[in-house]
Amino acid sequence: MSPPPALAVRLGPLELPNPILTASGTFGYGLEFAHLARLERLGGLVTKGLSREPLAGNPPPRIAETRGGVLNSIGLQNIGIESFLADVLPGLTDLPGKVIVNLFGYELDDYPRLAERVEPCAGVAAVELNVSCPNVKRGGIEFGHDPEVLERLVAAVRGATSKPVIVKLSPNVARPWELGEAAKAGGADILSAINTLLGMSIDPWTRRPRLHTGRGGLSGPAIRPVAVRVVYDVARRVGLPVIGIGGIETVDDVVEFLLAGASAVQVGTALFRDPRTAERLVDGLAERLAALGLERVGDLVGAVRPWEEA
Amino acid sequence: MVARDGEARVVAVVARPLPYYTIELEVGAEYAAVEPGQFVMIETRHGLEPYLRRAFSVHDVALGDSGTRIELLGKIVGRGTAALAAARPGERLALLGPLGRPFSPPAAGPLALVAGGVGSAPLLLDLRRALARGVRVDLFYGGRSAADLPRFDDFRALVETAGGEAIATTEDGSAGRRGLVTEPLAERLARGDYRALHACGPMGLLARLAELAAAHGVAAEGALETEMGCGFGACLGCAVPHVSGRYALCCKEGPVFRLDEVRW
Fold this sequence. Notes:
In chain A, 27% of the residues lie in helices and 18% in strands. Chain A is α/β, with parallel strands linked by helices.
């Protein structure tokens, strides 16, 4: 009888007890799930995006279901970094999984300042940068859509923290790997992909957009093939470890992302319909590895078989 | 009481009449303590669709030899509500609850209950609780037409056994008094008939009730209907504009709000 497969993974400087994390914006600050899920089973959790000041968010309606997906425009509502560090983080410190804080700002300088703020916090294992925010100084173009700006932003964060830096890539560009390369040049350790796809839905009877803001971010199973394609391209071209995100809800989905080149995954929208999705996937992945006769998660990473063997 | 994510077994679906229906579910013992206005998130998917669970007020609860049962009152308006109406006895559906802030127990009557269409859903339990406490209750039940007053006769029977009055209104005059439910209510409020008001229905109705209650100095609460993604405070989708200027989450701070707490 062979020993049970090892789920632990290493992504550059970041070690995780298993490759299943929860995605930013879908798991609150963690504690919302404390009575509904076994937080101690997670490889890690990524917080709701945090800014320097608390944000009230967008007017309702903020969420609308579409075929196989969810369109949202929450407006980055959050309690602010100070409140998170003082009131929430102490409640998350006993977990074996890693706490990753997701950070965003509206000026480039917000990012290094936030990174500096969490630098002394032992309970924070890494920072993930949400760069899909409008850059107010550049006419609202997203930080993550401009390779030069992104490289400068990541370099500024790199200079402010010794913690692993994860950059979350937007799928709303023609060549996502160019942004991945820019993030790498700026000193990123890890890439996560993808953030939501920009979308819109209109009620045919009321003629109103289903979201108050009109446009919003699409997530859920509907976006999974897009996410797999971006992970595949970015993992092959950039050479940084990748965390796959986009419509994951089954073990097959996890394996698909691993084969495409992801070293770990984040589960997101599925948590709204089943708060225990992530822990189910941890158990399911161990069973799958055993069934495949594999010893490590890494044996699947990037192991997609091309139709034309090189 | 802490919400639990478990499973419900479908006992029966009853047309009330269609497009309205009730679905009876066998549930965990924690629902014996459910309070009026609380809600559940229930799985309605057949295959992949719809993806998210749907929020329903608990309409009624019964404790019997065979365990705890709850009823949900729905109206077929889309894929989720249609899928639930098509559920078969014996089917098992994921169920998260009970969730949210309930109606306050009325400190003193008389209490006016105000329902707009399927907004009557959480008011049956509230009516039962008020009657059990000996509070006098009148019901104001409005709909577009006679077909939009699901279970009005059941409500009326309960209200009348306790000496209360059940007043129906329809916009087309096909049942009860022609007009809006706020009209007969406003007359009674002007007479000083009520100390408290509990309501559920469309936002436009609740906004009008907030004005009326404020004008007559009546403590008023309403159960709000908003789009909900998760039901437990994670998705931040169910924002309700609060008078303080911030957004409150309907699932955590509601679904029952004091009507003067909401920025209408």
